[in-house]
Amino acid sequence: MRDVVSYLQEHYDIKVLGDITWSHAVNSQQRLQDVLNDPQVMMLEVDVILSSSGEVVLAHPPAQDSDLRFDTFINIMIGSRQGIKLDMKDPEVLIPCLTLLRDSGLQQPVLLNAGVVPGNDGYPPKFSTRGFFAACKKFYPRGILSPDWTNEYTPLSGENIDAMLGACEDFEQVTFPVNARMLPFSWPHLTRLLQHDGYSLTIWDGKPVDKYLRLWLQENTDPAKVCYDCVDENGKPLSWWNNAI
After folding, report:
1. Residues with Cβ < 8 Å from 241, sequence gap 6 or more?
2. Are 141 and 172 in contact (CB under 8 A)?
């Protein structure tokens, strides 16, 4: 994530990954207008699906449609300095998204996320692991890889980490998304990822993080190696390493 920090330092007062502020699930016209060019929001996370009518749109399953098309979103973001994380839910959207990104002239950092490695929940990945990496490298090599496991609630195991490390061995810069509530139970294994200089974690949660988990994060994670796509009970971005809980 060195490229993300370097870019954002040109536009915002940040020092480390943990200083980056996020807006999660920006999947509608209204939500986009609420956060677009907000100086308190540096990165937008969106979910990309193939709609019931065959269009590439921003929505999170089980939703099947949206009032915000992917191409519209990218055209709007060209006028913003905010970075983007694309959580791709359907394999069919991968090549169209990467091609549009390549042709858009977008200057800000883009994280490319998909579930490509099996977890312990029993859900096989929709995406081919090799296919995802190969497509990203071919069509949008300036994108930053953010490969995910298919876990939802079951902690990650050492075998899960081994599989991800093997998949990413040819890449120097990778950030791994992990659900905040799953983090403490997976932490002994996840720390192995952070032994690699170019690897980081992007901790996220669609719901507010309570004070007990915030305390755990404060005591165990390093904002130099971790992004926090999380908010507190008041909906405010977390920055607990320099604020009392």
Report:
1. 18, 218, 223
2. no
6-27 pLDDT, tens digit each: 999 999 999 999 999 999 999 9
Separation of alpha carbons 203 and 180, rounded Å: 6
Q: Which residues contact 121 (CB under 8 A, 6 or more apart)?
A: 150, 151, 152, 153, 154
The alpha carbon of 178 is separated from its chain's Cα centroid by a whole number of angstroms, namely 9
Residues 160-208 have pLDDT tens digits of 999 999 999 999 999 999 999 999 999 999 999 999 999 999 999 989 9
Cis, bond preceding 62 (omega within 30 deg of 0): yes
CA distance 213 to 222: 15
- Which amino acid, one-letter code, is at 225? K
Strands of the chain, DSSP E: 22-23, 43-50, 56-58, 83-88, 110-117, 144-149, 174-179, 199-204, 226-229
Query: Does residue 229 contact residue 203 with C-beta atoms inside 8 Å?
Result: yes
List the structure tokens of 173: 């810069």
